[in-house]
Every structure is written in C-alpha cells, then in structure tokens.
C-alpha cells in the first residue's frame, strides 16, 4: 500500500502544487444562479468536479456546507468523493475533527477506513484535545495509505491567542504540534503522510517548520486576503512542502467550466512562480 505522502508527492509532480476547496456557500450558489437547497448543492459540486477533478492535484470538500442539508447533503458529499476519485484527484475532506481518543477512533473509521462511504485520501484534524488524542487517526491513516492534516497556525485572526500561547517549556502551542507531527513523519520519503495546516495570512511568526517532513497546507489565499507572494514570508525555507489552497477565489469564477479551469490555472501559476524560486 502506497503511503499518502508518496501519492501526494506524485500528484503534485504531475498536476502541480494546488488544492482547490469545494465550499458551496449560499452566496456562491446564488451567484451561480442556483437554489440554496440540495439540488443547487448537487449541481454546484458536479460542475466543480467536472471542471477540475481531472487537473487539480487535491480537492478539499468542506464538510460543513454539505452537512447543513442533513443526510441528503451528506449523500451528495459521498458521491462527490467518488466522482473526484474517479477523476483522479486526491480528496482531502475538511472536517477538522478532534475528540478524546476513543471517539477519534470512530472518526478514523468514518473517513480513513476504505470500507466507509465517506472514505477519503486525507482529513483535517484539530489537535486541541492533545495531539496524542488523534493517534487512532494517525494509525488508521498509516495502515491504509491515508493522510491527516493537523491545525497548527490557522489563517483566522482568532487562532493566534491559543496557538501562539506559550507552554511550560517556552515553546508555543503551535510549535509543540509542529514538533509532534515532525516526529510522526521521521524517515518517510519522499514525503510524510502527516501534514500541518498553516495559514498564508499569518506573516512571519518565527515558527520552525524545517523538520516537518510532511505537507504544509496553506489556506487563506484569495478571499481571506493572502496572495502567493505571502507564502515566501510565512514558509521561508520550507516552501518546498507547501500545498496552496484556494476555495472562493477559484469557485467565484464559475459556473462556466472553462472559467473555473482558467481560475485554477491562474492561481497555480501564481503559486508556482513563488514555489519554483524556493
Ligand atoms: O483546514 C482548512 O482548510 C482551513 C484552515 C485554516 O486555517 N483556514 C481556513 O480557511 N481553512 C479552510 O479553508 C477554506 C478557505 O476558503 P476560502 O477562504 O474561500 O479560500 C475554508 O473551507 C476553511 O474552513
């Protein structure tokens, strides 16, 4: 079984370093001329998958926008995951799960067990019940070639108060998360399967990402105000591992498929110009 890190490394080499999020906001549905209901959701996601599934390395459905329609929304999420896999992109499900270990086991089964209807290549996870509480996700991911992206330094302004608080040994909370994920990736080549989420909006925070050994998902680009040039400031010498992530910036170009593809190509070119200079 190939590891997620190996699969991601290959996908990025073939398709370029880009993750596009599927975030069907009510405002985007309206802008696309769609109704704010399951039919609109279905049409929106099918359009994104048809336009981008065969060319973007990673697609990141945001679970919240499917869950808000209940079981019928989740059914659309399940079929979106299948369609993306058929189209050849890796699926990173943005669920930001975190809980005590015994419950995390159930989340791991939901997303990282190949027999689950919501089985994906990777998920986002929250470490604020302790990185160790996420161990069942790490274990199942390792067993089945999956990945986990753990929040470290999020793109929203509220995150800093928690993430940059100092622990008893003087490190920030974020640095302890970074260090624990780095340990999990030790020895993995060409890329570890355990990633971190580091927002492109946060500026130079002085955190040491050099030893992570896994992918660094960078949301906050486009709609939240960061641009590709900010990646250099935030990631410095760790640019090689960065996976830039855009949702609204690309999605707002729809519903025309050619316009969606052009938007994805444009942001990829922007990011490449920064990442190539690493
Ligand atoms: O885990 C994430 O993807 C994430 C982490 C973070 O720090 N900030 C952040 O914006 N995100 C997600 O990335 C997406 C950003 O969407 P846009 O601002 O439209 O590009 C949303 O689905 C957020 O939930």
Automatic annotation (TrEMBL):
Belongs to the OMP decarboxylase family. Type 2 subfamily. Keywords: Decarboxylase, Lyase, Pyrimidine biosynthesis. GO terms for molecular function: orotidine-5'-phosphate decarboxylase activity. It catalyses: orotidine 5'-phosphate + H(+) = UMP + CO2. This is Orotidine 5'-phosphate decarboxylase. CDD domains: OMP_decarboxylase_like. The lineage of its organism: Bacteria, Bacillati, Actinomycetota, Actinomycetes, Micromonosporales. The active site is at residue 96. Residues 17-263 form the Orotidine 5'-phosphate decarboxylase domain. Pathway: Pyrimidine metabolism; UMP biosynthesis via de novo pathway; UMP from orotate: step 2/2. InterPro entries: Aldolase_TIM (IPR013785), OMPdecase_AS (IPR018089), OMPdecase_type-2 (IPR011995), OMPdeCOase_dom (IPR001754), RibuloseP-bd_barrel (IPR011060). The keyword Lyase applies.
């Amino acid at each position: 079984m190939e590891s997620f890190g190996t699969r991601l490394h290959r996908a990025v080499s073939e398709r370029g370093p880009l993750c596009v999020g599927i975030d069907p906001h009510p405002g985007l549905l309206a802008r696309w001329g769609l109704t704010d209901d399951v039919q609109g959701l279905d049409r929106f996601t099918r359009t994104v998958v048809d336009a981008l599934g065969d060319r973007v390395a990673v697609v990141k459905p945001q679970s919240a926008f499917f869950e808000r329609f209940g079981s019928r929304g989740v059914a659309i999420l399940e079929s979106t995951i299948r369609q993306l896999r058929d189209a050849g992109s890796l699926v990173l499900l943005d669920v930001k799960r975190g809980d005590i270990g015994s419950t995390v086991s159930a989340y791991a089964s939901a997303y990282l067990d190949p027999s689950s209807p919501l089985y994906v290549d990777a998920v986002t996870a929250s470490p604020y019940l302790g990185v160790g509480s996420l161990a069942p996700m790490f274990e199942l991911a390792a067993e089945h070639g999956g990945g986990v992206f753990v929040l470290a330094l999020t793109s929203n302004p509220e995150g800093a108060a928690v993430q940059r608080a100092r622990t008893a040994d003087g490190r920030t909370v974020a640095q302890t998360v970074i260090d624990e994920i780095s340990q999990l990736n030790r020895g993995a080549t060409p890329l570890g399967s355990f990633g971190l989420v580091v927002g492109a909006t946060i500026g130079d925070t002085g955190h040491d990402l050099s030893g992570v050994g896994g992918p660094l998902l960078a949301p906050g680009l486009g709609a939240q105000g960061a641009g590709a040039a900010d990646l250099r400031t935030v990631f410095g010498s760790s640019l090689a591992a960065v996976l830039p992530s855009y949702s609204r910036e690309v999605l707002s170009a729809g519903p025309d498929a050619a316009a969606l593809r052009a938007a994805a190509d444009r942001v990829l070119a922007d990011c490449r110009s920064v990442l190539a200079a690493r």
